[in-house]
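Re: How this chain folds, sequence and tokenised backbone to follow

Filed under: protein folding, tokenised backbone structure, sequence and structure records.

Contents: The amino acid chain and a row of whole-number tokens, matched residue for residue.

Body of memo: The sequence and its backbone structure tokens, given next.
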Amino acid sequence: MSRREDKVALLHMRDHATEAVENVRGRDRSDLDNDRIFALAMIKLVEIIGEAAGRVSTPMRDTHKQIPWKQIIGTRHRLVHGYDQIDFDILWKIVSFELPRISEQLEEILNEDNTNES
């Protein structure tokens, strides 16, 4: 995979993580139970983040071990293949507590990459 393809995947991850984080502001865990559209949106955003993570090259993943690549990709697989057994408590923890940190880390990686391109 080229540097450009890695950058595109990282941008997708960051953008969708940021969108999920923005969408949970002012919400609480019960909204996943009571608002089907919100729940489906959160599921889809996390799926996309996992799909994009799977497109990041091994060298890039090895360079940035602070990102939990395996867990992100595994979560995507769980959501897609175990769609009928999604634990909303886990999904809530991911979008509320994990994604803000991951989004910041992805931003740092992208900023590093921009600095290296200059």
Summary: The CA atoms of residues 38 and 115 lie 37 Å apart. Residues 88-117 form the longest helix (30 residues).
